[in-house]
Design brief:
heterotrimer; B: 415 residues; mainly alpha; C: 100 residues; 78% helix
């Protein structure tokens, strides 16, 4: 049981508990906090894999901006606990086992494949920020500029949509 | 004994880190307490009054009295609060504030002795993305405020929490953009690399990033960063969401005793972190302002030159103090300070070692004084003025700074 | 060194839980958060493959996924705010008629 494996299991358990809590909690703010826990656990897993810039971006953007947006909206709309409705019998007794079966099939397929990944033909250098940004601005410069345009469109859309009607 | 020896040699790195964390926490919490004393004294002197001077000589035991008061106050939990979130918010704010201190380097050279074969550096960790870690922790710090405001189940904290977190998110952008100029010049996110790039042994003070002799002076970047950081830490003049005369007390209205103390400690600790960041990013960190030529060697005695007269003055002041307690404590304190100053002259090796940390700590002290000075002097902004400054002034100016600095770095990169 | 299929299994589990939450929950904001959970699971798979293959393409794609998720969250939440204002409820079972 090497140290990276122990760290992996701790973080993976944290992520799964967070996701479970997202489903089982009644109040949306508790679900939001559980999702933040999942994201921080995933950032830890990225660090374990050596992708430090992606981990930092995950925490700064996902955990520090997107989830803050979610929490703001929950606070602004004064969301309350979910009402209690009964599931249909089909959903309760057929749905959950089906979901488990599908996830199990996916997981089994991955384990069975032995993680067979095609061998690297030209392994890149270390995954540090400098190499990542070199690639981002040379090979991927076109998607990069497109995403900046996408963000601009999203900003304008959100501004227009959330205005109060001028009555 | 041998088992302990071999255990410490193998896992010494972890034991050493835990010891360093404990020491740093102890030092920072004490500095926090005396920072509140310092603030009250300085603001009082600016307002032509005396400040705390009853509880111990010159009010030096006032933080201890405040701490005891916080512990003994009744711990009220209002009705209808969401218990988990109500208890989580101050804990989150405090943990994140204290965690950001782990990446700050305090000195260039490791200690001359080693801990069972492990080198003792003057920092807890020095990751390659040190600055990004600090920004990540700042980004997560919004939750402490937002959740505190929401969980209190009351109008004023909710409004205060919403305003405060909107303010923090807005100024976070300007803060990160204003640092990009420094990153372009240093070519690395690691804080020790940024300080080493401002090495002042040749040009002295001119090689600090704010005068930027290598590429471009970062004066605009520093101003944007400092103003945005004051807004980020919710201090005057940007403290409308928690001001005492506005929304009762903003997002921490419904918190009493120790939970309020946690918010308090979190705020002062983030002040210390921001001052350390200003010193590291823009003012050369542990580099001294003079070049390392033999002509300037007398500046090596500057720590002693400050400590010895200060110690003597404290002794002189203590001898004639009004209370007996002061007449015992103050001369003792003064003797200790003067003795440290004399020891630095007597042991030149210690003097050489202490140069780096001395310069960094004095710069941090200067920025903390500036924070307190701003608190005693400036009125606070209205909320719409505050948001206007964040979005319409600081953000475009910091983006322009990035573009101009990038141009200069490209232009002078052939050197 | 953790084998790649451990990360992939975790990614599959998180994706499955996100899909279940999407179907089961009735609050529109929680449904949105389950979409973010599914995106995160996919990001984990990308980074795991990137580490296994030794190329950086996976991590760059993760950056793009995060950016697109941010844009989608902003616009989606704006739509949710508008809908909640009109219907006075965040329950998706109430939004079942075209007419208010």
């Amino acid at each position: 049981m090497s140290a990276p494996l122990i760290v992996f299991f701790v973080l993976a358990t944290l992520a799964v508990i967070g996701a479970l809590s997202l489903i089982l909690q009644k109040h949306p703010i508790h679900s939001a906090l559980s999702l933040i826990v999942v994201m921080v656990a995933l950032a830890g897993l990225y660090l374990l894999m050596g992708a430090e810039s992606v981990a930092a971006v995950q925490i700064i953007v996902y955990g520090g901006a997107i989830m803050v947006l979610f929490v703001f909206v929950i606070m602004l709309l004064n969301a309350t606990e979910e009402e209690h409705t009964d599931f249909s019998k089909l959903a309760k007794f057929g749905g959950l086992p089906l979901a488990l079966a599908l996830t199990g099939l996916l997981a089994a397929a991955m384990i069975h494949s032995g993680g067979a990944v095609p061998n690297t033909t030209s392994p890149d250098a270390l995954a540090n920020t400098s190499n990542l940004s070199t690639m981002l601005f040379s090979t991927f410069v076109y998607p990069f500029e497109l995403t900046s345009f996408l963000i601009l469109v999203a900003i304008m859309g959100a501004l227009v949509l959330a205005q109060r009607e001028k009555t | 004994m041998n088992a302990a020896n071999s255990f410490l040699t193998e896992y010494g790195f972890w034991v050493l880190t835990i010891i360093k964390i404990g020491l740093l926490l102890f030092i920072v919490l004490t500095v926090n307490a005396y920072l509140t004393w310092f603030e009250r004294k300085v603001v009082a002197l600016m307002q032509s009054r005396v400040g705390p001077h009853r509880v111990g000589p010159h009010g030096l035991l006032q933080p201890a009295a405040d701490g005891l008061k916080f512990l003994f106050k009744e711990d009220v939990m209002p009705a209808g609060v969401d218990k988990f979130v109500y208890l989580l918010a101050p804990f989150l704010a405090l943990t994140l504030s204290l965690a950001s201190l782990s990446v700050i380097p305090f000195g260039p050279k490791p200690l001359p002795f080693s801990f069972f074969g492990h080198q003792i550096d003057l920092w807890i960790t020095n990751p390659d993305i040190g600055l990004l870690v600090l920004f990540a922790i700042t980004a997560l710090g919004v939750y402490g405020v937002a959740l505190a405001g929401w969980a209190s189940n009351s109008k004023y904290p909710l409004l205060g929490g919403l305003r405060s977190s909107a303010q923090m998110v807005s100024y976070e952008l300007a803060m990160t953009m204003s640092v990009v100029g420094v990153l372009l010049m240093a070519n690395s996110f690691s804080l020790t690399d940024i300080i080493r790039q401002q090495d002042s042994s040749k040009y002295g003070i001119l090689s600090w990033n704010i005068f930027g002799i290598h590429y471009f002076p970062q004066i605009v970047g520093f101003l944007c960063f400092f103003i945005a950081a004051i807004a980020e830490t919710n201090r005057v003049p940007f403290d409308l969401p928690e001001a005492e005369s506005e929304l009762v007390a903003g997002f921490h209205t419904e918190y009493s005793s120790f939970k309020f103390a946690m918010f308090f400690i979190a705020e002062y600790t983030s002040m210390i972190t921001v001052s350390a960041l200003c010193a590291i990013l823009f003012f050369g960190g542990w580099n001294s302002p003079v070049p390392a030529t033999p002509f300037w060697n007398f500046t090596h005695y500057l720590p002693s030159l400050i400590l010895i007269p200060f110690g003597l003055w404290v002794i002189y002041d203590g001898i004639k103090y009004e209370t007996i307690f002061g007449r015992i404590i103050l001369p003792g304190l003064g003797t200790a300070i003067a003795a440290i100053g004399v020891a630095l002259i007597v042991f030149p090796a210690a003097n050489e070692y202490i140069q780096g940390p001395f310069w960094l700590l004095s710069k941090i002290f200067f920025f903390l004084f500036f924070y307190v000075w701003a608190r005693g002097t400036l009125p606070r902004f209205r909320y719409d003025q505050l948001m206007n400054i964040g979005w319409k002034l600081l953000l475009p100016v910091s983006i322009a700074n990035v573009i101009i600095t990038a141009g200069f770095v490209l232009f002078r990169s052939t050197r | 060194m953790v084998p790649t299929q451990y990360y992939l299994v975790l990614s599959a589990i998180l994706f499955g839980m996100g899909a279940v939450a999407f179907v089961v929950k009735r609050n529109i904001i929680t449904i949105f958060m389950s979409i973010e959970l599914m995106l995160n699971a996919v990001n984990l798979a990308f980074v795991a493959f990137s580490q296994a293959r030794g190329k950086l393409d996976g991590q760059i794609f993760v950056l793009f996924v995060i950016v697109v998720a941010a844009a989608e969250a902003a616009v989606g939440l704006a739509i949710i705010i508008m809908t909640a204002r009109n219907r006075q409820s965040l329950n998706v079972e109430r939004v079942d008629l075209l007419k208010l």
